[in-house]
Write the structure tokens for this entry.
Amino acid sequence: MDHRDRRDRRPGGAKESGNGQRKGPGGRASGDVRRQGERRCGAGVYPGAGKRDGRSGEGIAGSARKDGKFAVGARTDRRPGSGARMGTKPGTGAQRAAQGPSARDVALRALREVARDNAYASQALDRALSAAHLTGEDRRLAASLFYFALENRLRIEHCLAARMKERPEPEIMDILSLAAAQILFMDRIPDHAAVDEAVKQTRAARRERQTALVNAVLRGLIRARDAGELALPDREAEPERYISEKYSVRLELVERLVKAYGDQEAEQIASWSPDRHSDTIRANLLRMQDAEFEAWLSENGFDWSRGKVPGAYRVRGAGRLAAHEGYRGGLFSIQGESSMLAALALGAKPGMQVLDACAAPGGKSCLIAEIMRGAGRVYAWDLHEHRVELIRAAQRRLGLENIRPQVRDAARRVESLEGAMDAVLVDAPCSGLGVMGDKPDIKYRLRGETIEALLPIQRAILETCAAYVRPGGLLVYSTCTILPEENRDQISAFLAAHPEFEIAADAAWLPEALRPRYANGMIQVLPDRDDMDGFFIARLRRKAENYGG
């Protein structure tokens, strides 16, 4: 499912844990991204709190969490972030190019890629950083700038719109948004530096005529902030509008969350942001088991702790994990705990015939194949060739010979496979609201009609793939969203139409900490509550009796 092709970032990193978990002697400092400024307006910095299966931007991004406090107009001590290029006189575009990209230029490039091309945030930032030659301090500043601007996009645009007669062209809007993020949310960056750098970027973009507009709008924003004119809606009178504006979540999405969870829990969900200092990895089970992997992590200098899901390890400050020789050599995979959980729900065993119907980029297929010890077969389907190639690449890297990647529409039935599978995983296309922390643009891009359009697709795939399950076999339905209409309601409707299936109530496959969340064969993982990606997993068993279905 597209929304999960990313990094899984979790809290962690304390030197001692409550369950005897050990840490290695130290992580790689290059991946330890710290905030260069605290939020002035709408939220506070926190030390740690992001698909899903494979990522390219590990360990780069700064964390950004909203703490529910809003202090408009409260001017706090501002200290320039060391390493930021601040307070210099604006130069021409040619001069700026000769100097090389600044941290702000890198953040702007990544922001453009997300805004224009719908790129995954972590991957866009990784590409922008890889193309520049920044110091470690400037890399951290670039990440902070990028995520503050991205995570607060709606709030920023609302504040800017009140200072402009009309919306400027996208290039200028991105420059203004980046500067506004510094003015509104980053205490340690002086206002004049944010304004001056925005003017520089406008000149560098060959928009000289727009420099006066950029300067005037940003200075107007500063005056409005200092005068306390950027108030949010009243929390008690208009809770949905308050949550929407404060956390930059489209109002119609907030309304769905409030309907499902109430306004208190909806605000917690909207405010959650992952720890971007941390990544989750697991060993290649054909190469190493847990004890051996833990020794390898320590020997290689990883700062690690065990995750909630068996076999999951949270590592901090590890830099670009996808470039690590252990990753390239197939010793480990980068995979979120909720993604692992969906694979574990199948109860795979050596010799089984298993289908992963919406498999790309392949993390779950690979884990299933490893659990099966290379015996049996895992059919891994996806609709698009370029995404199936991601599965093949993971298969080659990990040395897995029992995976059969194939381009196939999971909603179209293959009669020859009916009743042939011991277990089927339907990790259905979904709205991705469980992973807003890792793809913040979901918060303001996703529309209600998109969600409504997904529902029949989910039903069609579930209906089609259920036919492949043999009597006594398992059907697992999962998504990375938290909306009941995409999850619980889909399963209830399916069971009502298919008496040949029943709830698989056994919770032994779940980590003990999550078992209280399991009811009627279903579990809804919430990111703010469970410290994992928001995921839904349902386990159904085909009855041994022959219903002719």
User: Anything to note?
Assistant: The first strand starts at residue 278 and ends at 283.
